[in-house]
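[job 4471] stage=fold_predict status=RUNNING
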Amino acid sequence: MGGPHTLPTQTLGTPPTPLPDAPITAVFLVLFFSGAIIHMRLYRANLARGHKFLFSGATFGFCMARTTACCLRLGWIYHPNNVSLAIASGIFVAAGVLILYIVNLFYVQRIIRARHPQVGWHPVGGVLAIPVIVGITMCSLFMNVTAVVQSYYAVDLNIQRIDRDLQLYGASWFTIVGIMPVFILGAILCIPKRGKIDHFGAGRLRTKIAIVMAASLILTVGAGFRLGAAAVTPVLNSEPLRWFFSKACFYLFDFTVEIIVVYMYALLRVDRRFHVPDGAKGTYKTDEVLDEKSERWDSDDLEARRPSTTINDSKTEFNESMTDINDSASAISRILSINGQSGKYELRSAVDQPKAPPQTPEPEHYELPPGIIARERGEYSL
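[job 4471] inference complete, writing structure tokens
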């Protein structure tokens, strides 16, 4: 085991050069940093409304990891002999995408609980399955990172073989986790549902399924290509560059597929579609439940669409408006008069204007003392 050294074999997207790697990496840096800002703004806006959606924060973390990877890659471009930058860049490139895999798995869990609650809320099949898969994925990540770092130090051929096997295992497991939501969702769609769907979030359940399956397929394309590139026989740097190790393939199957998923999550508002009430257990307790074919709105939308007045209030307002109109017409008729010859309206003179009839004052009522009232009635007391 010696000091860090450059790898003698070709790897995906290496070695980077100022052209074309620097401008392309800078563009992806801006895109991922913008995605981080968008998802953090969504997270904070939802949190201010009491709508806690942690997966927006997880996507923000993924975008920041990719931003760091782009920064490290830019540093590696202008310092090609710095092996430490190469190692750090490789670690962040390999580790970041797992966040999207895990987020997709939790989306699948919520869909299963909505369509098949007896399975999704089962202690084994629904509650423990996802944490177990996540645990295996994290262990595989640590093994993969260890193998990547050790490959830059290992001199013994047997250790290099072990490192390569560990990297192949990690790439294989990540591909399985990436495609897993497609098979799970396909299976639950084939199983007839019992009872009504337990709706959650906004939008149709079929739309949620389509979003998760599309994201899973896109991510699996990148993971599958990386697995295929790692599985081929190692090619020395002195040999002609293989097309599947080219920089175009690196940026297409690594950064491009991931940025598509990041912005798809933001544009399709998964923070609203996959939101569930805090503390839900056994069912999703929602205030407004619509059938599967209808669109569901959140509480703010429902409040905005609710009429502000009742029917009785509308009738009262209509009657008051008609009274105001009659008073206005009476006032106009006291000011204008129709000329019998021309048929036009003319202003009335002060003499011609009809005078209001004199008001007769109401008689005042006085209350007589009790003695006078008794005398008037002929009642006298000794």
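[job 4471] summary: The first strand starts at residue 336 and ends at 338.
[job 4471] exit 0
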